[in-house]
Design a protein that fits this description.
CATH superfamily of the largest domain: Medium-chain alcohol dehydrogenases, catalytic domain
Structural class: alpha/beta
Number of helices: 10
Largest sheet: 7 strands, mixed
Number of strands: 16
Number of domains: 2
Order of helices and strands: EEEHEEEEEHHEHEHEHEHEHEHEHE
Bound molecules: zinc ion
Length: 328
């Protein structure tokens, strides 16, 4: 059987449109009816024409025209003859680039994750970015009493900052260039915020730590200046936590990485193999299902799928939009 769907095609930079596609379910595949779809920072990079190198996550080469989208969730409506781990009616979270800006998407089962019992479907549809942020926050190595700096107040940064607080950090600092994101961070529990355009992060962090530097710095902004600032404000033997996906070459001053014995933690959940992800995702979503981390406040804008052009225009122009979602 096959299903006709509307699906987003990124024809060229800044040129996205819905096209009609026929999905044919392979024997080891399933078709999922979407509940909600999120725009990821990496989708924005694609939209702006910054294509990353091809990775195992993609079904297609990262070049134009590109069938875009990877953050969504929904209900399985069809399963292939060889699929044994899912059945029609199962609620699933997408973990793969399967052209998810669509009414329906086709997926291999290893690119899915069951929705935890009791999880709101709006949140489950953002299960991939939530799990990624939570994984980073839960594995950042934050100890009770730490001063933690989160570089970047986007979707992941806001989640990571909340996790740091819940894990017992004495002071959580969120640094960004936008006041709107910093105000939200404050509302969600950050102790101190730094607007990198107006304030000197070095001065703020040294002031908070008797000149020692932060115990943990999480890089969740993904820019050259952010990586360099993170390398400066971290204490001797501090923990540098990677989160961002930087797809373009950048120039770093890394003398301190050696000289100050900086410890590195790579917290990219989906890139530790799907088997590890299968184990970790339920644990990362548990605190969310229990309401310990506020995600709803991070959903700033909603569009109908048919308004995908407007949604991407907003994503491109308005950096204060944290998570933009599309409803089929
Ligand atoms: Zn993403």
């Amino acid at each position: 059987m096959s299903i006709i769907t509307r699906a987003a095609l990124l024809k060229a930079p800044y040129d996205i449109d819905l096209v009609e596609r026929e999905l044919v379910c392979g024997e080891d595949e399933v078709i999922v009816k979407n509940h909600l779809i999120g725009i990821c920072g990496s989708d924005k990079s694609f939209y702006r024409g910054q294509m990353p190198p091809k990775t195992a996550e993609f079904r297609q080469d990262p070049k134009f025209p590109f069938y875009l989208g990877h953050e969504s969730g929904g209900v399985i409506v069809e399963v292939g003859s060889k699929v044994i781990d899912y059945k029609v009616g199962d609620k699933v979270i997408a973990f793969g680039w399967n052209n998810n800006y669509a009414d329906y998407f086709l997926s291999k089962t290893w690119q899915l994750q069951p929705v935890p019992e009791g999880m709101d479907m709006d949140l489950a549809s953002l299960g991939e970015p939530i799990a990624c942020g939570m994984y980073s926050g839960m594995n950042s190595g934050v100890q009770m009493g730490d001063v933690v700096v989160v570089m970047g107040g986007g979707f992941a940064g806001q989640i990571i900052a909340q996790c740091a607080k819940k894990k017992g950090a004495s002071t959580v600092v969120v640094a960004d260039v936008l006041d709107g994101k910093l105000e939200l961070a404050k509302k969600l529990g950050a102790d101190v915020t730094v607007n990198l355009k107006k304030q000197d992060a070095m001065e703020v962090v040294m002031g908070l730590t008797d000149g020692l530097g932060a115990d943990v710095v999480v890089e969740a902004a993904g820019s050259e200046s952010s990586f360099n600032m993170a390398s400066e404000i971290i204490k001797h033997n501090g923990k540098f936590v990677f989160y961002s996906w930087v797809t373009q070459p950048i120039t770093l001053n890394i003398s301190r990485w050696h000289d100050d014995g900086i410890e590195f933690v790579n917290t990219c959940l989906v890139h530790h193999s799907w088997r590890e992800r299968y184990v970790w995702t339920p644990a990362t979503l548990k605190p969310v299902v229990k309401g310990l981390v506020d995600i709803k406040s991070l959903i700033t804008n909603e569009f109908k799928l048919s308004d995908i052009k407007a949604a991407f225009e907003l994503a491109d122009k308005d950096d204060t939009a944290i998570k933009i979602v599309l409803r089929p």
